[in-house]
Amino acid sequence: MTRWIDVSQPLDRHVTTWPGDTPFEATLTWNKADTGSVNVGKVTMSLHTGTHVDAPFHFDDAGQKIIDLDPDLYIGHARVIYLPGRTEITAADLDGFELNDVQRLIIKTDGWIDKSTFPETIPVLTPSLAERLGELGISLIGLDLPSVDAIDSKEMAAHHALAQHGVHILEGLVLDAITPGDYHLNAVPLPLVDGDGSPVRALLRPY
């Protein structure tokens, strides 16, 4: 049987976070020596730590929260394409790729190789790309980047454009060992009732 490939960032004290955001911390609130039976841990973290999905509420007060999103968005056939060396990704970058009947598109950019350091700049998605994804019927875009917008963006133009065209967002994937092609994706978020985002265990399995 073909094995699942873990494409999520390990969550420990080494995981990078957005500058100024909540750092990751895992501690034991109870330990087996004291309780006589169990260890019980506690985690403190931003919902946008490591590999995660964004809910529209992240950038729109009227947008859906994590609990409102269809889990089917994050499970099923996905196509991985490779677009290295870009400062931005546009609709024209999809020319030449066969994307008919693709609902989940993952773009390997190599724009954030060293994930032990938070990047100062990353490739950004343009509104033209969001429009093309909508035209193609793609409902999920996944990236090996911490955001679809520039690190210092306040307008969040790509987030808004993707939402306008019905495209949801999966960020922070680890795609170093992944070659372009077709995979089964499983990256379901937690059922967070008020969540603007959610960490995920993202898995790919080649067909």
From TrEMBL:
Cofactor mode of binding and number, as noted: Binds 2 zinc ions per subunit.
Keywords from the named record: Hydrolase, Metal-binding, Tryptophan catabolism, Zinc
Requisite cofactors: Zn(2+)
Superkingdom of source: Bacteria
Binding residues annotated for Zn(2+) 1, in chain numbering: H48, H52, D54, E171
SUPFAM superfamilies referenced in this protein's UniProt entry, alphabetically: Putative cyclase
Pathway: Amino-acid degradation; L-tryptophan degradation via kynurenine pathway; L-kynurenine from L-tryptophan: step 2/2
Residues noted as binding Zn(2+) 2 in the record, renumbered to the chain: D54, H159, E171
Substrates-to-products reaction catalysed: N-formyl-L-kynurenine + H2O = L-kynurenine + formate + H(+)
Subunit structure, interactors included: Homodimer.
Sequence similarity: Belongs to the Cyclase 1 superfamily. KynB family.
Name recorded for this polypeptide: Kynurenine formamidase
Protein source organism: Exiguobacterium acetylicum
